[in-house]
Design a protein that fits this description.
Layout: E1 2-5, H1 10-20, E2 25-28, E3 46-49, H2 57-65, E4 70-73, H3 83-88, E5 92-94, H4 101-116, H5 119-127, E6 145-149, H6 153-164, E7 168-172, H7 178-182, E8 186-187, H8 190-196, E9 199-202, H9 216-221, E10 227-230, H10 239-247, E11 253-256, H11 278-283, E12 289-291, H12 300-318, E13 326-329, E14 332-333
Parallel strand pairs: 1-2, 1-3, 3-4, 4-5, 6-7, 6-9, 7-8, 9-10, 10-11, 11-12
Antiparallel strand pairs: 5-13, 13-14
Length: 338
């Protein structure tokens, strides 16, 4: 069988095609699947999508008309997929329920450290042989407070690193993680975490209940010199409210690996185009804001695990088996979809 894989990054392609070698042929495309590209999948029973895919009801309908019966998404998040529509169309939807949590946690820490110690600004200066230290002063993290929103696998990995720095630990989640508690984490209300934390990091999925979890009120509750890091999902942060907050001089720094309107922007070269997203353009003007393009997961280890899980999802679909990654199995929504 030949599978078409959308949104394949250059560094990912060889790993993906090698993983399927001996099983199936893979047609790798660098474009995401959406309204404009869905027709390419005509005749392919199995489609592999990337995190930036648009798999709304109309796109799924187009894929189904073309013969697609299974979508294997190469990500943990699936807020871009209309699962009910997929079920109505009798499709099977698989994702990757987990991969190396260290990839994202370590990158989140990279953002936090780069923002705190003004590393990007310093590098830009020294490239121009400007070796002044003006405006580069950061803060020790030891003894300060890290607030972790979401203490699952990734949140726990971030917490372990924070513990190694000697930070005080606050957490917020629907259920306490005993491993985090053992490290000294105290679970508090969300508002209290925002108010008391020097460093706030987000590690929860994007659901209706978490959309704009960091809104104007949450930003107002934070310390004036707090650092905010988001390496989870862009929609967790109200970007307009964030711009308004930064304009007042509040927050010591912000590290964003995701952005709520990143679809069609991230993973593409837009350097020769006019940036039409005014909010993102404004965010990029702040000297204490660091934006990267959804790369926290992008390590050999994590991508390898994502691809291995994707291969297993396809093989299980073809063998009429289910597994923990399946969100919809031949038109049946799984009970644990969220």
């Amino acid at each position: 069988m030949e599978i078409v894989a959308f949104g394949v990054q250059a560094d990912e392609r060889a790993l993906l095609e090698k993983a399927f070698e001996g099983h199936h042929q893979v047609r790798s495309l660098d474009v995401p699947v959406n309204r404009d590209t869905a027709a390419i999948a005509h005749g392919y029973e199995v489609v592999s999508s990337s995190v930036d895919a648009d798999l709304g009801a109309d796109v799924l309908q187009s894929l189904a008309i073309g013969g697609t019966k299974m979508i294997a998404q190469r990500s943990t998040g699936f807020n871009n997929i209309d699962l009910e529509a997929a079920a109505d169309l009798g499709m099977t939807i698989g994702r990757v329920s987990h991969y190396s949590p260290y990839a994202v946690a370590e990158f989140a820490w990279g953002l936090a450290l780069a923002v705190n110690r003004r590393i990007v600004r310093a590098t830009n200066r020294t490239r121009n042989f400007d070796f002044r230290l003006d405006g580069l002063m950061g803060r020790d993290l030891r003894g300060r407070t890290a607030g972790v929103i979401g203490t699952g696998r990734i949140g726990e990995a971030f917490t372990r690193i924070a513990h190694g720095f000697g930070m005080n630990l606050l957490g917020w989640d629907l259920a306490e993680n005993p491993n985090c508690v053992a490290l000294g984490m105290k679970y508090v209300g969300r508002e209290q975490l925002f108010a008391r934390s020097d460093l706030i990091t987000l590690h929860v999925p994007l659901l209706e209940a978490t959309r704009h979890l960091v809104d104007a009120a949450a930003l107002a509750a934070m310390k004036d010199d707090a650092i905010l890091v988001n390496s989870s999902r862009g929609g967790l942060v109200d970007s307009v409210a964030l711009v308004d907050t930064l304009k007042t001089g509040k927050l010591a720094g912000v590290g964003l690996d995701v952005y709520e309107e990143e679809a069609g922007l991230f993973f593409f070269d837009k350097s020769l185009e006019v940036m039409g997203d005014d909010t993102l353009a404004r965010l990029m003007t702040f000297p204490n804001v660091l934006v990267t393009s959804h790369q926290a997961y992008f390590t050999e280890d994590a991508v390898g695990q994502i691809i291995d899980a994707t291969v297993r999802n396809v093989e299980d679909y073809l063998a009429h088996r289910s597994n923990e990654n399946m969100l919809v199995t031949r038109g049946q929504l799984q009970a644990a979809e969220r």
